Every structure is written in C-alpha cells, then in structure tokens.
Amino acid sequence: MQTLAAIFRDGGLFMYFILAALVIGIAIIIERTYMFIHKYRIDARALWEKVSKYIKQGEIEKARILCEDARAPIMKILHTGISSAHETEREIQKAVDEVCMDLIPQVDKRIFYLLTLANCATLFGLLGTIHGLIQAFSAVAHADPSQKASLLAAGISIALYNTAFGIGVAVFFLIMYAVLQSRATRVVDEIDSFSVKVINLLSRRKGGEQA
Hints:
211 residues, mainly alpha, 8 helices, rod-shaped
C-alpha cells in the first residue's frame, strides 16, 4: 500500500482523474455483472419447453403462472404474451412488442459508458505524460545543475506512471466492455427469439381453435 501511495503521489494530479474513472467503471461492471448473473440468468430452453407444453395442452393459466415471477426479460415476454392469449394475433404482437421495447434498453444500459471511460483514462494518462515531460524539460532548461538529475527523473516518472496507469485502465475497460456486451447481445437475441416463438405458438393455437 505504501508503494501504491508513493506511485500516486509521484504520478501527480492526473493519476487521481484516472483513478476516478476506474472507480466509476468498476461500479458499472459490478452492477451489470450482478444483473446478468442474478436477474437475467435463466434456463430459457427448459422454461420454453414447459410453457409451450402447457399452451399446446390448452392450460394457459398454468403457463401464465409459470412465468409470473418475471425477474428475467424472457419471463416477462412470455408472461405478457400468455396474458394476452385471449386477444387477437395483432393485439398479442403489439403487447409483446411494447414489452420488448421497454426491456431491450435495460439490458445493455450503461455498458457503453465503459468505452467513454476507457477513452477518458487514455486521455488523462496522455495529459499526465505531457505534464511529466514538460516538468522534465523545464528541469533541464532552468533548474540548478545539482538538481537537474533528480528533477528530470521526477518528470519522467510522472510521464511513465500516467502512461502505464491510463493504458492499463483503458485495456481493462475494453475487455470488460466486450464481455458485458456479449452477454447483453445474447440476452437481446433471446428476447427477440422467444417473443417470436410465443406469438407464433399462440397464433397457431388460435388458428386451431377457429378451425
């Protein structure tokens, strides 16, 4: 901890800006990871097998109750479609589409901020690097000869600390963005897929009843 504190002390002001970006980014990563693991994680295939079985057997209420605990987007989609099973095909689709429009932005909410924070970390690191180089060159140009070496070393340390910290934070954010965006894309794809499945299944059922 003492070494880390010394690095931040020697690195200058912009190290703290990069640290602020890191803290904000980690908060976003933790929140999104929690949502994907505890709220959006569900065995969609097993759920669909049970729901579709009930619908095909005409046990609509059982299918609706099965999706009543609407913690996952897919369950909300299925619950909405099943709750509208007595409506026309167009009304079912409108209800499901409306829920999809509300759910999809929530899935990838705040993830794109990681790209902005990665850019900010890189730029803060660059500013810190420039600040360190200016200090180093000033030492060479104006400082007392006996102090030039130490001031030059201090300026170069500021430049290198900021460069390394800024790039390291940016790389971390880019990796986590790719991971979280992949998870969000998977959830969105499942939303699209199961919205179509439930609409088609309920439409075929209504068509069979009318026949």
